[in-house]
């Protein structure tokens, strides 16, 4: 009977290693699990081992790691761990087939750390730029409960929903932003290339020009000769907001303004509530301590206003108060959200209520995105028509005036 050398972790997190006899690797894994051990590596002793095929060199994707990449990783890990593969082998497979280069490199390093005796959670913590506090905390809960496959499945579902929500928000914002840039480009083209031609004609005609024409000509001259001032103002505002947004007060003010913006403010607020309730519910379902769960939710909220409200909730619970009181006092969360959380807290069905709130607000975001797409298009067309129309009319007004003067000359019947 073949002999296998293994390394495994106990339920207490201690590392054990040794050898055992089994018919095959799958049987060896099952025997270790029956002993209450979670195998991190297992290999057949000298002779009879299955050699690993050399990995084919292939091109990977550059750029930062995205939610979709982490979602695929969590799904694949869940399936392979549930199938009985040791963690080391799972990481080895993922390191070879992950397309995103930065994630593949991180997985290979995690594999080395786990092989050296570190827990999966400890290995993940060395890569905070890729794995956020939510991901790490869920894995920690999975390792502690011995249900890593089930927890990773929950992580994959959560990340898939968050990625879908993120795509919807981007699509709602990118469309008007793109059309606005095109409108600005057309306006600048008219002022720089078309208006100067009319300016030469007006100069040869002489006479006093109408007010709108003077305004359009002044804008054209300013853009042609003083464009660097306009560019400097735009760049100055951009860098001011960028660096001010890195301060605590600046970030809070900007985030608060974003939530009160017309049209987009309600959309961002609803998506933030959906993210807050989905994250909170997923953490509680996984057995994460409620205080620690609130801390994670605050750090991953993406909005400092909501983060402050959640942290006040955490402080309130530490002092023996309810969850809902600070949420109501923040003025950010709608009454329906706070009432449902209050009912869930009172009845012991908080996780269920949070999931229902998340589902409801994700549906609201979907409806708003569809509505905004159909609403913004005609608004932008009207805006572009007004701007271009104003420029065209202001250029033709002197010609109308000239025709009127010619028609009033003496001797003209």
What does this structure look like?
With 413 residues, the chain is mainly alpha-helical. The chain folds into three domains: 3-44; 67-131, no CATH class; 148-401, Receptor-associated Protein, CATH 1.20.81. It contains 16 helices and three strands. It has helices at residues 25-34, 67-82, 87-97, 101-115, 120-124, 133-145, 148-205, 211-225, 227-244, 248-260, 264-285, 290-299, 304-318, 324-330, 335-347, 350-407; strands at residues 3-9, 15-21, 38-44. The protein has a three-stranded antiparallel beta sheet with strand order 2-1-3. Helix 10 packs across helix 11 and helix 14 (324-330) runs antiparallel to helix 15 (335-347). The longest helix has 58 residues, at 148-205. The relative contact order is 0.08. The model is unreliable at 47-57 (pLDDT under 50).
């Amino acid at each position: 009977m073949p002999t296998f050398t293994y390394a495994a972790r106990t339920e207490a997190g201690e590392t054990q290693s040794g050898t055992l006899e089994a018919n095959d690797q799958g049987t060896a894994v099952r025997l270790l699990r029956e002993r209450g051990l979670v195998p991190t590596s297992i290999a057949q002793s000298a002779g009879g081992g299955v050699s690993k095929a050399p990995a084919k060199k292939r091109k990977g994707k550059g750029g930062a790691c995205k939610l979709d990449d982490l979602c695929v990783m969590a799904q694949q890990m869940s399936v392979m761990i549930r199938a009985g593969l040791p963690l080391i082998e799972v990481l080895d497979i993922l390191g070879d087939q992950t397309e995103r280069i930065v994630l593949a490199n991180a997985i290979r390093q995690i594999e080395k750390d786990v092989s050296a005796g570190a827990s999966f959670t400890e290995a993940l913590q060395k890569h905070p730029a890729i794995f956020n506090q939510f991901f790490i905390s869920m894995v920690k809960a999975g390792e502690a409960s011995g249900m890593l496959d089930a927890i990773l499945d929950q992580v994959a579902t959560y990340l898939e929903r968050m990625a879908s929500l993120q795509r919807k928000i981007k699509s709602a914002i990118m469309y008007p932003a793109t059309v606005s840039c095109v409108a600005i480009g057309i306006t600048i083209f008219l002022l720089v290339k078309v208006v100067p031609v009319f300016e030469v004609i007006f100069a040869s005609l002489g006479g006093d020009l109408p007010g709108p024409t003077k305004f359009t000509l002044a804008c054209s001259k300013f853009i042609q000769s003083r464009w660097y001032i306009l560019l400097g103002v735009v760049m100055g505002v951009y860098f001011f907001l960028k660096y001010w947004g890195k301060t605590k007060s600046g970030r809070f003010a900007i985030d608060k303004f974003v939530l009160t913006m017309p049209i987009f403010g309600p959309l961002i607020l609803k998506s933030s509530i959906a993210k807050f309730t989905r994250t909170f519910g997923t953490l509680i379902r996984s057995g994460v301590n409620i205080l620690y769960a609130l801390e994670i939710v605050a750090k991953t909220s993406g909005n400092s206003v909501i983060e402050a409200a959640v942290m006040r909730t955490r402080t309130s619970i530490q002092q023996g108060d309810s969850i809902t009181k600070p949420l109501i006092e923040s003025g950010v969360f709608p009454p329906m959200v706070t009432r449902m959380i209050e009912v869930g807290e009172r009845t012991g069905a908080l996780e269920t209520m949070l999931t229902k709130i998340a589902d409801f607000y994700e549906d609201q975001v979907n409806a708003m995105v569809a509505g905004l797409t159909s609403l913004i298009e005609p608004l932008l067309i009207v805006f572009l028509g007004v701007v271009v129309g104003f420029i065209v009319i202001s250029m033709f007004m002197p010609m109308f005036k000239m025709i009127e003067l010619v028609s009033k000359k003496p001797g003209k019947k």
